[in-house]
Amino acid sequence: MSDNKMDNLMYFTELEVQNIKCFEKTQKLDLKNEDGTIARWTLILGENGVGKTTLLKCLSWMVPVQAPDEGQPKKTKNSKPKKEKIFLKPFMDDFDNELAYDQLVRSGKSTISNITAKFSSGVGLNNKSNPKSEVVIGMDFNRIDGKLELVEARKQQVKQFNTPTIFAYNAKRHMAFKNLEDKELRDPLANFFSDSGDLYDAEQVLEMLDSGAHRHGAGSIVHGLLESLKQILADLLPDIISKEHIIINPAINKDGTVNSNIVEVKTFDGLIKLKDLSLGYQTMFAWIVDLAVRMLWASPEIENPLSTPAIVLVDEVDLHLHPIWQRDVRERLTQHFPNTQFICTAHSPFMAQASEDENLCVIKREESGLYIENEPIVVKGWRIGQIVTSELFGLITERGPQEQKDIERRRALLDKSRLTEEEKQSLEVLNQKLSQLPIADDEAQKVFNLVNNAAELLKKKGIIND
What we know:
The chain is of the alpha/beta class.
């Protein structure tokens, strides 16, 4: 195993599933950009219940780990030392509970299922991988007459290997309290498979980092991490003007009493305790702190732990975020975590708009089953209304439900060859009502208003009739 993580980068390039939960036919999730480079940011869109979370789970289960080399001959006293062979297999091959496999396989008496993951080894983000750098591992399942008969890992031999650092977060994530010593949380995938979604207590973590920074001095790794972390939080959270506005108080007051307000944030509304911030603030704050401290623990010897290679999976990355935050979060995360591959799900058109130059994909429900569209049509510069009515979100209209009903009713009346008196009155009311609706483009709206105003003026002067 190599000691230098920077020399042995490993990132996802593709995931393939067949007969896995809601996915029946073979589907591929492409984790490369249009030009074939490894995607730094992938945003998976789709309606509720189409398998976005399932794909993230499969990615986390496919993390490569070193497998024992069962074919390696035993060493004897006179045998020459040979270089150890390294075989990789999926992390999920070590599951103890067979029920976990059975629940993963698509329902049916006889089903052949598989998950395959492709990685690029030794190639950085936004660079092209090549066949020589490719690592392919997978899991095969075979259910016969309702019983799971085969669970087999597909392995690959490599010359050198570092287990990729991967962190995963589910949609229930939230800041918990006084849990820094909780050993179960140390698993970097714990949050994703947790029923509670507990994140580390951000106040405890910041207190720990602040104490370490004071103890080890300004040039220490922990001091650098703390300053970087405060800068990220200031960049991501709109009301925090600068990192100096994140205040970490000592645990013990000058009079010897315990301080219950360790972390406070200076906002436009004054000084606010971390625990009194809104849920959106708390969740984003705690998530970034949780990720940063895990990266420190994973690479304690690196001067800037946030720059180390990592893979981060986030379900519903737009959770609790105002549209302003949704537009900024991708840029801020990729800026402060430059060697991290982010693979996220979302429901936000604002995030899709901010990711138009990144790797976007959409899961669609068709008559034949679920389908992953890896190259949806995206026009740069689209307005939000155009995005929500595109194939990315599939809305019929950007209008509200009642306005759309009125438009459809008016269209139906206009299509009739003859109208009753009641229908004529209805059409007149609809015409008046719909004429007041704004139209999509601001410039076009101005023209529309000018025409309407001119028409009203001409009517008043008797030049034209209703």
